[in-house]
Amino acid sequence: MGGRRVGAEEGTRLVTKARPQAAEILRSLVALPHETEWVEFKHNDSEPEEIGEYLSALSNSAALHEEKTAYLVWGVENATHKVIGTEFRPRERKIGNEDLEPWLARHLHPRVHFCIHEFTVESEPVVLFSIEPCAHTPVRWKDYAYIRVGSYKKKLRDYPEKERALWARISLTSFEDGLAARSLSGEEVLARLDYPTYFEMLEQPVPATRAAILNRLEKEGMVQQVSGDRWDVANFGAILFARKLPDFDTLVRKAIRVIVYRGPGRTEALKEQEGGRGYAAGFQGLISYIADQLPGSEQIGEALRHEVRVYPEIAIRELVANAIIHQDFSIRGTGPTVEIFTNRIEITNPGKPLIDTLRFIDEPPRSRNEALAAFMRRANICEERGSGIDKVVHAAEFYQLPAPEFRVTEQHTVAILYAPRQLRQMDRQDRIRACYQHAALQYVSGQVMTNATLRKRLGIEEKNYAIASRVIADTIEEGLVRPRDPANTSKKHASYVPFWV
Predict the structure, then answer these.
(1) What is the model's pLDDT at position 15?
(2) What is the end-to-end Cα distance of the chain in Å, rounded?
(3) CA distance 173 to 151
(4) What is the dihedral of CA 278, 279, 284, 288, to 10 degrees?
(5) Judgement on whether residues 22 and 115 belong to the same structural domain of the protein
(6) Collapsing DSSP states into helix, strand and coil, what is residue 317?
(7) Least enclosed by CB within 10 Å: which of 184, 305, 344, 421?
């Protein structure tokens, strides 16, 4: 609630059976001198359509006023802020055959997270909805976005000055700055965050006192001191170092899922595992788990047999890190997914990329989550320079795998690593993709593609140079590569560069 939050008035006494966090929130809300544009008090009014409109209005108003959370509260008298109780029971309410909570969520666009707390205060039932501020775009209820004007709920379109201000404000906000938990004690913060792993990853000793640990986490931007021993946990800290992501209501659906299928399709899943820890704290365990699910091939050395993985670990590591870093956290109800099939691995993250997939190899990376990306690089989890995709492409070439593929769907980015295939098993697009990526990788390495380098990449014998020539011609036809020197008429000494050179 920023600088406008005040402590409980002297003499205010809340005896509650709620979780301490909910009690602290309610105590601060009833102590406010008047209703604000990001808090609404009600007695029993609980018409579902109006609740939906309030969720939109309060979410948008919280963003406009730079508040971390908005609140819709039943059981508090509006004029006096006295706790009087309510007859509203949201978890018992249905709209047709659908429960109220999913019905509300379904009609909010884009979906915004809200959490329902039901508890008693001095034997009076209270209902509190905590609502995230909008991110990237105003939240609509069905066809309209709403906003609070004073203590009134209005359509946003009728207040163009507020609409302009809201768009200006949300263009500056980031997921990392949002709050995953509010008003925790220092002890609760350290119970929820895996701080020993944080210090270990940065190769620093763990401070001797709790105060020193919290101070270091605050300097990192992972927690914020509210007052005394009360702390807010930022999304940045929770998503990286949560001991258990379910401890943070807004992040539960952002856990990474690994699904293993029996064949090349999704008809039969053999197993599914969902990560429970923060991305940084659980990263190495995640990569090890994925590696354990992959097929291997036995290699016989001079003295010992040893198993070599079909897919290079560096490629998996970089692609998983990229999925984590570049995901769009504003897309609700979905997180990064790793799907393992018999003939490929698909790594998917919410959100479209900020650069063209054809420029993944050469363009500097751009991320929606710069603080998250910067920390992952500092902790040596992912590539410090570039996107890491050049490492993925290089690993695919070194292991003689088909070229990785990058696809963009309506709301997701998908990276695909393919299992080994002979050249004759690759179709025209597979070959063109390999040719283009090879040309791009050669160029960013200070070299050029030739018929000879492409033959080596695709495992083509020298006598079959015409096959490589055909692949190059097809890739030129697709507009993805071009001759380095158009005036050179000698095919034998020709070299090629990507289209963007």
Answers:
(1) 39
(2) 50
(3) 25
(4) 90
(5) yes
(6) helix
(7) 305
Whether residue 145 contacts residue 157, with contact meaning beta carbons closer than 8 Å, is answered with: yes
Integer Cα distance of 454 and 440 in angstroms:
12
CA separation for the pair 398, 75 (Å, rounded): 65
pTM of the entire predicted model: 0.72
> What pLDDT, in 10s, does the model give residues 3-12?
333 333 333 3
Say how far apart CA 362 and CA 303 lie, in whole Å.
42
pLDDT on residue 81: 92
CB proximity list for 99: less than 8 A, separation 6 or greater: 91, 93
* Same-domain pairing of 326 and 470: no
Among the three residues 386, 405, 421, which one is the final residue of a domain in this structure? Answer: 421
Type of residue found at 180: A
Clarify whether residues 240 and 266 are in a common domain.
no
414 and 449 belong to one structural domain: no
Phi, psi of 352 (to 5 degrees): -80, 150
Buried b / exposed e over 296-311, threshold 16 CB at 10 Å, is eeeeeeeeeeeeeeeb
- Residue whose tokens read 């919280």: 62
284 Cβ neighbours under 8 A, 6+ residues apart? none
Residue with tokens 């004073």: 150
Distance CA(400)–CA(465), nearest Å, equals 18
Residues whose CB falls within 8 Å of the CB of residue 422, separated by 6 or more in sequence, listed in order? none
Which structure tokens are listed for 431? 């070959």
Coil, helix or strand for 249?
A: helix
Cβ atoms 311, 287 nearer than 8 A: no
The packing angle between helices 451-458 and 428-444, to 10°, is 120
Query: Bridge partners of 31?
Result: none
Which range marks the domain in which residue 228 is found? 180-250
CB neighbour list of residue 164: distance below 8 Å, 6 or more residues apart: none
Are 186 and 211 in contact by the 8 Å Cβ rule? The answer is yes
The structure tokens listed for 292 are 């354990």
Query: 455 with 432, same domain?
Result: yes
**What is the tens place of the pLDDT at every residue in 240-263?**
999 999 999 878 889 999 999 999
